[in-house]
């Protein structure tokens, strides 16, 4: 598929983000990770898996925000948007950011090249601009 997105058995792999470091991070009402002209926004609770533990993180609720800056400059190894609406971001150093299905609108959003958006849907599923909602 165009834009560095590949359909796989259970969802979508965003290969255009692989091998790029997190160059900017914004923590406000949500978490925004930038890799060049691409970005990942997380608006719902997530889990950060480190070398030693799994910790809940949530920007707007201010939960474990001290862990998030450690993702700056880390290289993205995988971004996977499951058909269920779950998002997995795996980093080359072994850490992982998992965003489960959210009941709220836009638990997460991926923006590619500033204009192509993929997002989770409330209560599950994925919305892409050129395909029906799953």
Detailed description of the structure:
The two termini are 17 Å apart. The protein has strands at 5-8, 11-14, 24-27, 31-35, 38-42, 46-49, 54-57, 76-82, 87-91, 96-99, 108-112, 116-120, 126-127. It is mostly beta strands. The mean pLDDT is 90. The strands form two sheets. It has a seven-stranded antiparallel sheet, with no helix packed on it. It has a six-stranded antiparallel sheet with strand order 3-4-5-11-12-13, with no helix packed on it. Helices cover 0% and strands 43% of the residues. It is built from no helices and 13 strands.
Radius of gyration over C-alpha positions, nearest whole angstrom: 14 Å
Q: Kindly state the percentage of residues in helix.
A: under 10%
Strand arrangement in the largest pleated sheet: 1-2-8-9-10-6-7
Mean of all residue-level pLDDT scores: 90
N to C succession of SSEs? EEEEEEEEEEEEE
Query: What characteristic shape results from the CA principal axes?
Result: globular
Report on the biggest sheet: 7 strands, antiparallel
Low-confidence stretches: none
> Could you tell me the number of beta strands?
13
What is the end-to-end distance?
17 Å
> What share of residues are in beta strands?
35-45%
Number of helices: 0
* Protein structure class: mainly beta
Helix and strand topology:
Layout: E1 5-8, E2 11-14, E3 24-27, E4 31-35, E5 38-42, E6 46-49, E7 54-57, E8 76-82, E9 87-91, E10 96-99, E11 108-112, E12 116-120, E13 126-127
Antiparallel strand pairs: 1-2, 2-8, 3-4, 4-5, 5-11, 6-7, 6-10, 8-9, 9-10, 11-12, 12-13
């Amino acid at each position: 598929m165009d834009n560095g997105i590949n359909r796989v058995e259970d969802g979508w792999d965003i290969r255009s983000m692989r091998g790029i470091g997190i160059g900017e991070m914004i923590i406000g009402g949500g978490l925004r990770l930038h890799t060049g002209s691409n970005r990942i926004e997380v608006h719902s609770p997530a889990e950060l898996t480190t070398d030693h533990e799994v910790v809940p993180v949530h920007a707007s609720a201010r939960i474990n925000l001290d862990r998030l800056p450690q993702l700056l400059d880390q290289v993205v190894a995988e971004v996977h948007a499951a058909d269920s609406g779950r998002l997995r971001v795996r980093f080359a150093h072994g850490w992982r950011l998992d965003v489960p299905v959210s009941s709220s609108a836009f638990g997460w959003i991926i923006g590619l090249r500033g204009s192509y958006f993929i997002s989770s849907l409330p209560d599950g599923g994925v919305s892409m601009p050129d395909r029906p909602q799953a």
